Amino acid sequence: MTQCEICGAEIKGAAQYILIGSSELRVCKSCARYGTIVVDKKAKARLLAKSRVKSESRLYAQMDQEIEEGMVEDYGRKIKEAREKAGLKQADLAKRINEKQSLLRKIENEEIIPSGEVMEKIKRVLNISLLC
Ligand SMILES: [Zn+2]
To answer: Which ranges in 1-132 belong to alpha helices (H)?
Structure first.
């Protein structure tokens, strides 16, 4: 017999496949309303891709906000010091984070505040925390 993965009841007739977050569940007709019904494999792939993109952009928006709220005042100096300590030239670090050197120079001069994405990359490469 086929069991519903939500309520555990036996599924009579065709099972429904639904998506909740990124997991696919085999459910009975009455539980299908808890998620998005998967019509076919292509639709499922599309749904998965969409939910991934959404959560990533949400993450970056959140990081941007955190940076604006909690950025240390001398972030440029901190980045520069950490970069020099790591023995990296501006051009080296720029290459490592896949950004232009001119962007990095502006960040170090505190002419611009880096986006959450750029900030994450800098933090990862230099192993520093710039937030309070
Ligand atoms: Zn059910």
So the answer is: 41-70, 75-85, 90-96, 101-108, 116-126
Query: Where exactly are the structural domains of the chain?
Result: 68-126
State in Å: Cα 99 to ligand 1 middle.
50
127 token code pair: 């192993």
* Centre of ligand 1 from the C-alpha of residue 39, in Å: 18
Determine the 3-state secondary structure of 33 from DSSP. Answer: helix
7 CA distance to ligand 1 middle (Å): 4
Please tell me the distance between residue 18's alpha carbon and the centre of ligand 1 in angstroms: 11
Task: Tell me the CATH number for domain 68-126.
Answer: 1.10.260.40
- How much distance in Å is there from the Cα of 14 to the middle of ligand 1? 12
> How remote is the CA of residue 32 from the centroid of ligand 1, in Å?
7
Q: Chunk the chain into consecutive blocks of 10 residues (it has 132) and report each block's average pLDDT, rounded to whole numbers.
A: 90 83 85 78 63 65 61 81 94 95 94 86 86 46
Q: What is the pTM of this model?
A: 0.47
Please state, in angstroms and rounded to a whole number, the distance separating the CA atoms of residues 2 and 25.
Answer: 12
